Amino acid sequence: MMELVDTTPDTNVAPAEYLRLLGYPRGWVLEGRAGELAAQARAWYAAHGRPWVYAREASSVETAGAAVRIDGTTFGGKRLRRTLQGAEPAGAMLVAVSAGQETEQRAQELWLEEKPDEYFFLEVFGSAVVEHLTTAAGGRLCAWAETRGMAVLPHDSPGYAGWDVAEQRRLLELLTRGSALPGAMEALDSGALRPKKSQLAVFGLTGQSAGAVRPAELVPCRTCSLLSCQYRRAPYGRAVEGCATR
């Protein structure tokens, strides 16, 4: 069973992705005060952020009926079920990423210091880091799957369209069954994660080869911003149905 633990992952968020989360139009150039705030957020995180990534391969995946069963635990994610059923599932990878609790703590300090602009730019950068970590994890899984004649499917997460965010707690319990995460993470009764700049995800695996013809929605590259990935099979389109980290 494949397991990945990384406490020093790359956090070089693409400027275009940071701009998108900040709400600026594509191609916008940050200048003046906005440029300073963005640079400050990056610099602070580079010095103080403590990101981590964890992933492990599930032992079993079943898609019979209206739910998905992973290692005996049932989930109601509709899109996850459709994705797996449409691609001859060969397994799944359970993934947890976090930008670390330091970002949340610093953002709260900035708010209490009545620095709303600094607070906002750091908050958004934390979200951008989470998206980047999830994307980069997918790229690493693609590399692993390629050597085994498999392909990675688009990831899904509680909180995305069709998957109740309250199931975060169940997914976290499953992911940590017999394993310890490299950093702190807690799922509240509401489904919110703590630290809040964190994400849980399920990447389906298919036995179809990477070059197999599949419906466009089953090609993860369309929603993957890791533009330098050597396994890219389709242009990045950013077609995501909601995000639990924003």
Strand sequence of the main sheet, in spatial order? 1-2-6-10-7
Low-confidence stretches: 229-234, 239-246
Helix content: 25-40%
Return the structural class.
alpha+beta
Helix segment tally: 6
Q: Quickly name the level 1 CATH class.
A: Alpha Beta
Which features characterize this protein?
246 residues; alpha+beta; NADH Oxidase; three-stranded antiparallel beta sheet; 6 helices; 34% helix; 19% strand
Helices and strands in order:
Blueprint: E1 3-6, H1 15-22, H2 32-48, E2 52-57, E3 61-62, E4 68-70, E5 73-75, H3 78-85, E6 89-98, H4 101-112, H5 116-146, E7 151-156, H6 168-175, E8 186-187, E9 193-194, E10 198-206
Antiparallel strand pairs: 1-2, 2-6, 3-4, 4-5, 6-10, 7-10, 8-9
Helix pairs in contact: 1-5, 2-5, 4-5
Describe this entry's structure for a reader.
Helix content is 34%, strand content 19%. It is α+β, with helices and mostly antiparallel strands. It has a single domain, classed as NADH Oxidase, CATH 3.40.109.40. The strands form three sheets. A five-stranded antiparallel β-sheet has the order 1-2-6-10-7, sandwiched between helices. Strands 3-4-5 form a three-stranded antiparallel β-sheet, covered by helices on one side. The longest helix has 31 residues, at 116-146. The chain starts with a strand and ends in a 40-residue tail after the last strand. Mean pLDDT is 87; it is low at 229-234 and 239-246.
